[in-house]
Amino acid sequence: MYTLSTSNIDADIYMMKNTNQTMTTILSIFMGLAILIVSLDSVRAGLNNAVPVTVEQVKHERRIQPIRNSGRISQKSEIRLSFKTGGLIKQINVEEGDVVEAGQVLAALDLEEINARQLSAASNYRQAAEDLARFTTLYDESLVSLQVKQNAQSARDSAAAELQIANFNKKLSVIRAPHGGRILKRNVESGELIQAGQAVFLLASQKQGSVVRVGLIDQDIVKVTAGDPATISLDAYPGRMFSGLVSEVAHSTDSNAGTFEVEVLIDDQGFALRSGLIARVEITPVTGDLQYYIPVESVFKAENGYARVFVLDESKNAVNEVRVQIVEFLRDEVAVQGSLKATDKVIRLGAPYLTDGSTVSVVEDS
């Protein structure tokens, strides 16, 4: 017969209490581990979302950037020569390419008609002068009125003016070289009938040298001043560079092209730089602009002269999107203006994968 003792009951109760405490402890440990795992997963997820990028310091510098364009060679002084009056060309004394001296007769009109007009004007003048002398005598003798004398005076003055015009036209019926130079173009032939003012020759003065004229846009023209150095290259002389200086800078635009004309005077080094040759010009402004320079890879969403770049916020390991204005694309950099600071670091590689506020992880640029 089994007998239940008090000591056995107490032992069973003690064991049950210990078992409950152990289970509670084990449950607490499991709950702590679960919370730790969730926290680690959250941290790992945050790290996995950070976009790996490389960065580069913004450069805030004053640089001199050359300005490049093309134009045609011409002479510094080119004059279109023509006759004052129309008429029949009697003689042409020079050909294209001829070198001429100051005062040399280049062409002449047939003077038959011009001489006749001069003789007529001279005859009219003599008659008017005689009439004036006669009416002056009669006026002094009170035989004619003052009005008659004044009319004779006006007729004599008008005839004198006509004679002066006839003499001037005869003088300009011959084209003489105003200075030494070279005939670039001859537009007529002997025996042709031409109009007054029609260009007969294009004369270039060799003493003033050769120039090349280029058209610059408004962003470039403000950087150029007279005296800026330039280099010129021509296909006609491959491998040879000519030096030059900016001699003139336009203050208004060409209405057709919408650009500003700049004239560069060339040191021809004794070479025959013919008018019309194509020249490539590189002008180096004396002063440069203070601008920001960033890697070309940093430019993102470029459109209409503006672009987006991402600036690193090191305190948050994040990026801020900044809008900048593109000034010029260089070989591996871009000159920009905008809300940047010299201390900023811009994202170089990884920009296409970012948005404003993205978390990033900076890695070394290999």
- State the share of residues found in helices, binned by percent: 25-40%
Determine the CATH topology of one domain.
conserved putative lor/sdh protein from methanococcus maripaludis s2 fold
Query: Given the structure, what is the number of helices?
Result: 4
Q: Specify the CATH class of one domain.
A: Mainly Beta
* Residues in β-strands, percent: 35-45%
CA(first)-CA(last) distance: 89 Å
User: Secondary-structure element order, as H and E?
Assistant: HEEEEEEHHEEEEHEEEEEEEEEEE
Shape: elongated
Mean pLDDT: 84
CATH architecture of one domain: Beta Barrel
Largest sheet: 6 strands, antiparallel
Catalogue the unreliable spans: 1-20, 22-47
Give, in spatial order, the strands making up the sheet with the most strands. 2-15-19-18-17-16
What's the count of strands?
21
The whole-angstrom Rg is 46 Å
Structural class: alpha+beta
Verbal overview:
Among the domains are: about 50-65 and about 290-360, conserved putative lor/sdh protein from methanococcus maripaludis s2 fold (Beta Barrel); about 110-170, Helix Hairpins (Orthogonal Bundle), CATH 1.10.287.470. The strands form four sheets. A six-stranded antiparallel β-sheet has the order 2-15-19-18-17-16, with no helix packed on it. Strands 3-10-13-12-11-14 form a six-stranded antiparallel beta barrel. The protein has four helices and 21 strands. Helix 2 runs antiparallel to helix 3. The chain is of the alpha+beta class and about 375 residues long. The radius of gyration is 46 Å and the shape is elongated.
